[in-house]
């Protein structure tokens, strides 16, 4: 039910309105700002769909050990560059409710050493759920060996093919989602903190502090983005552990991304600092930092949420680009950008196009964040049409 469209400020159902209309009107006028935003967001079907997809993405990233059919570092020299398996329900015996795949026949050309895989229809391999497989530690605490789906231990199932070492691409993409998606959240959180603090100080105090802060932002924004990324990423020591590299990447992306949020906060504070509630707090002796954080910033929280949602895709693309150029995360760490390093050779991509599948997940994640941001932007003004 679109309550906001039925009952907008100024609408008058009349004295003889239906009781249900009066209840809707009362519900609308007694609703909080957040509830009105939630109702408006639910009316944006594309944004709701995008939110569901993103929740699914993060759920998969959170339980990647259990959902991935194989260990991402598991190698199989017998299935190097194996193409994706085709899932079947029908064979010569008719229809089967349980999906299945056929085994591979491998032929190696003795002159070119090219590998050719064909289906061996004499080997029908059923796909099962909650199968035993490679052992893992869920979140580093619980040891288990059950996976959401897969095949018998002595068989192989490559839903999205295998790479040059015979590692399952689907498992590596699922594991890579944990870093690629989390680096966006962590990076934007750090950018948000820097943007609120520095932008808040700039907008609240104004004067020479505002001039210095704005000149600093303009200097940072004047640098070409890619060369700046390259320079800062190259500064990371080569002997660092992958955990330190991940943290360094997050700091670098936050250092570059805070300027836009800072300008948003500054602009809002310039408009709100002379409002009555801000002046009343100042007269009452409230400390200036508390006025900024407790009175001014919450008044445009919805706008900040929209800005953050639209900034996360930029962080994901930045990590993917740096890792693809071998200047960000490096193997054995797994991210979508690291996986795309396998697709830098044109000949390899032409022969094994499934190595580009991580790009599809990057595109879907970025699009879903943009659609979600559009919905949140509309919901931030629940009285608009």
Q: Remind me, CATH topology of the largest domain?
A: MetI-like fold
Order of helices and strands: HHHHHEEEEEHHHHHHHHHH
Quick one: CATH superfamily of the largest domain? MetI-like
Q: DSSP strand (E) fraction? A: 5-15%
CATH architecture of the largest domain: Orthogonal Bundle
Number of strands: 5
Count of helices? 15
**Rg, alpha carbons:** 27 Å
| Fraction in helix | 55-70%
Global mean pLDDT: 83
- From the spread of the alpha carbons, the general shape counts as globular
Provide structural commentary.
It is a single chain. The protein is of the alpha+beta class. It has two domains: 94 residues, no CATH class; 208 residues, Orthogonal Bundle (MetI-like fold), CATH 1.10.3720.10. It is built from 15 helices and five strands. Strands 1-2-3 form a three-stranded antiparallel β-sheet, with no helix packed on it. It has a two-stranded antiparallel sheet with strand order 4-5. Helix 6 runs parallel beside helix 9 and helix 12 packs antiparallel against helix 15. The model has no long low-confidence stretch (mean pLDDT 83).
Fill in the keyword field for this structure.
MetI-like fold; 56% helix; alpha+beta; 385 residues; three-stranded antiparallel β-sheet; two-stranded antiparallel ribbon
């Amino acid at each position: 039910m679109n309550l906001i469209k039925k009952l907008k400020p100024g609408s008058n159902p009349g004295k003889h309105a239906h009781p249900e209309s009066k209840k809707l009107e009362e519900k609308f006028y007694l609703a909080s700002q957040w509830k009105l935003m939630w109702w408006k967001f639910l009316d944006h079907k594309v944004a709701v769909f995008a939110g569901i997809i993103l929740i699914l993405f993060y759920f998969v990233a959170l339980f990647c050990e259990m959902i991935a059919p194989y260990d991402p570092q598991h190698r199989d020299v017998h299935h190097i560059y194996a193409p994706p398996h085709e899932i079947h329900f029908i064979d010569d015996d008719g229809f089967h409710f349980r999906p299945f795949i056929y085994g591979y026949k491998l032929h190696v050309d003795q002159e070119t050493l090219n590998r050719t895989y064909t289906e061996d229809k004499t080997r029908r391999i059923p796909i099962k759920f909650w199968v035993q497989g490679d052992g893992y530690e869920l979140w580093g605490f619980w040891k288990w060996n059950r996976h959401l789906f897969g095949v018998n231990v002595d068989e192989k199932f490559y839903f999205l093919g295998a790479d040059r070492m015979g590692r399952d691409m689907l498992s590596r993409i699922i594991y890579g989602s944990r870093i690629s998606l989390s680096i966006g959240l962590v990076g934007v959180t750090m950018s948000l903190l820097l943007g609120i603090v520095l932008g808040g100080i700039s907008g609240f105090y104004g004067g020479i502090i505002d001039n210095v802060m704005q000149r600093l932002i303009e200097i940072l924004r004047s640098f070409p983005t890619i060369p700046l990324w390259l320079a800062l990423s190259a500064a990371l020591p080569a002997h660092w552990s992958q955990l330190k590299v991940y943290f360094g990447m997050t700091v670098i992306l936050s250092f570059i991304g805070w300027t836009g949020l800072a300008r948003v906060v500054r602009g809002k504070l310039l408009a709100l600092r002379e409002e009555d509630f801000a002046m009343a707090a100042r007269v009452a002796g409230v400390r200036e930092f508390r006025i900024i954080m407790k009175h001014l910033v919450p008044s445009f929280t919805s706008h900040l949420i929209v800005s953050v949602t639209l900034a996360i895709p930029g962080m994901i693309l930045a990590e993917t680009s740096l890792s693809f150029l071998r200047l960000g995360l490096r193997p054995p760490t797994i991210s979508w950008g690291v996986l795309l390093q396998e697709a830098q050779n044109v000949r390899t991509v032409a022969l094994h196009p499934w190595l580009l599948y991580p790009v599809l997940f990057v595109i879907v994640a970025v699009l879903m964040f943009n659609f979600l941001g559009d919905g949140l932007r509309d919901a931030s003004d629940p009285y608009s049409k």
